[in-house]
């Protein structure tokens, strides 16, 4: 009859094979069931009656197993996605899926995240120099207070990605569509953007002095309170783009706007009117 109890538990637990906490629960439960069965037999119950009373006495075991398995898997996922305070220099994360991963205070210099799905992950206070994020999915990721010098973002998926207070000298964004991305309080003077489009991007308080945005597309972008001395938008397309100083009559900000090159750019009437009011040189701009 012990084998019959074992077979019964095996059938119930089969869907959860490999989950450590469930395996431990199974072993404990089998021991308890065997003891209960022996007590019923000692009370004069026949084999079949003792068996039925034993298994009926454990209640809704399948619901209990499911809850234990879900908790265990949740904890296992947390362990597998928490890489904080780790030495991961030149690590291979290419193609992995690590949703809501934690990379806080970690050494990730030269690591390969190409093609990885890092949706919802957090990178903070880490060394991510020369990391490869080509074709990676960084949707809803937070990248703050990082050293991202010379990192590569070729065709990376950037949706609601938050870059703030990070070093991006030499970082290269190629063929990327930035959607609702925040690049705030960041020095971008030595960051490279090639063949990119910017949709709903927020550059507030960032330094974009001397930046070259030639030929790129900006829709619903905010450059409010950003430093744009000598920036170039030659041949660029600008629609519903905001340039605000935060101070209605800031002479210094107006002088800065005059240093921006818009030659050959195409823009909508609202953006044109805003820049015209700031006395930007729009003599070679096409209005749509």
What's the overall average pLDDT, rounded? 83
Computed CA radius of gyration, to the nearest angstrom: 30 Å
Q: Tell the overall outline.
A: elongated
**How many helices does DSSP assign?**
6
Number of strands: 15
Order of H and E elements:
HHHHEEEEEEEEEEEEEHEHE
Query: Strand count, sense and closure of the main sheet?
Result: 7 strands, parallel
The strands making up the biggest β-sheet line up spatially as 5-8-11-12-13-14-15
* Structural classification: alpha/beta
DSSP helix fraction: 25-40%
Cα(first) to Cα(last) distance is: 85 Å
Strand percentage: 5-15%
| Unreliable sequence segments | 71-79
Characterise this structure.
The protein is built from 6 helices and 15 strands. It has helices spanning 2-13, 20-42, 47-56, 61-81, 251-257, 269-277; strands spanning 102-104, 122-124, 142-144, 152-154, 158-159, 162-164, 172-174, 177-179, 182-184, 192-194, 197-199, 217-219, 237-239, 266-267, 286-287. Strand 13 (237-239), helix 5 (251-257) and strand 14 (266-267) form a beta-alpha-beta unit. Helix 2 crosses helix 3 (47-56) and helix 2 (20-42) packs antiparallel against helix 4. The chain is elongated, with a radius of gyration of 30 Å. The N and C termini lie far apart (85 Å). Residues 71-79 have low confidence and may be disordered.
Can I get a quick summary?
The protein is α/β, with parallel strands linked by helices and 288 residues long. The chain has helices at 2-13, 20-42, 47-56, 61-81, 251-257, 269-277; strands spanning 102-104, 122-124, 142-144, 152-154, 158-159, 162-164, 172-174, 177-179, 182-184, 192-194, 197-199, 217-219, 237-239, 266-267, 286-287. The relative contact order is 0.06.
